[in-house]
Request: fold
Amino acid sequence: MDRRVTIIGGGLAGAEAAFQVATRGGHAVLYEMKPGARSQAHTLDTLAELVCSNSLKSNDVGTASGLLKAEMRCLNSLVLDIAQKTSVPAGGTLAVDREAFSIAVTERLNEVGVEVIREEVTVIPDGNPVVIATGPLTSDAFAASIHEHIGTENLYFFDAVAPIVYAESIDKEKTYMASRYDKGPADYLNCPMNTEQYESFVSELVRAEGVIPRGFEDTPYFEGCMPVEAIAERGPDTLMFGPMRPVGLVDPHTGRRPHAVVQLRRENSEGTLYNMVGFQTRLKFSEQKRLFSMIPGLENVEFARYGKLHRNTYIDSPRLLTKFQRLSSEPRIFFAGQITGVEGYMESSLSGLLAGINALRVASGTAPCLVPPPESMSGALMRYISGEDAGAEGGGKRGFQPMNSNFGLLSSPDIRNKKERRAKQVALALEAIEGWVNETLA
Reply:
């Protein structure tokens, strides 16, 4: 049979899907509209560009994101492999040099024989199995084609990205290097604030002038990526329990924990750029310059990239997709990545990985499609977005919002101690995924 699979979109999910098809004996045809066309958030011509943070979250297998990575190692993830090879110091977090990462992914796909076609796709092609991985910034023309196939309205929400600043413009005398609770190397640059500085900053932040693209004024934010000013609007102390949480970050200058802290994470391997952690924003550029200069150490900061707001698009997956990410009404079509409602770099990559494997099985006439066991984080996440998880009532008729990997997706052992309960969930998940891989993918 024709083992050709068409993948539309060269982001993380599309790249992962193409890699799985190509390395498992199929012919992957990957369409990417750059450089002929690009969204407002993209700047690189290479594939798998990270447009928000450069962090892929924790490596600790005791966390949900660390467990997901451990499972993806078993699944031979391209994205995870390249991320580890292009990582930059970030304590216990896996963060990458985003340009080096994107280049390396592009080169690897070329090495394994992925056919990359640089043109914008405006309609879903007929014939072979298709993986739609156009991501949260799907073009208007292609979104219209998706709408024709799914027969329901897409859902939209705003997503904000954090500013990136030049390291040389930071006053190092007022900052200090540390990781929370001294876990791992001191890879974060911390800007401490006393009570007066914090209160003054928050007061100005909630009055600052923001910008919302015309036509999307009523679009809701995703809770996992709220603009910093939107968090501040919820109460004067909200930021202290969010991105400005000072717990575990003792200031060596005073020997005490500051009232609040702004953390900066290295953005590239050279250490010339830093990302303002958790400071996604919709503020006007002039306001960002004014307000963020109030932060100790950033009085004269220069911005390599201001924070900005863009539109994210995702479909109502619980009503539309099976747990294999197949479109129920048209099974040759698969969706993958953030457009399905998974939220996060690794989650999107996992989605593409599994969609690529299953699309190839359809193209090869190999039945049935596969999904990891529900005890695993991978399998639980796929069941959640399809509405087939235990918490979904009526086949996914719950209100649907994007979802990160988290332990709440897994069944909870009857163990009172949280640490022991998490350890048991991790052990069950790894045992399940390893057995599944050996039985079905070996």
Notes: Confidence is low (pLDDT under 50) at residues 390-398.
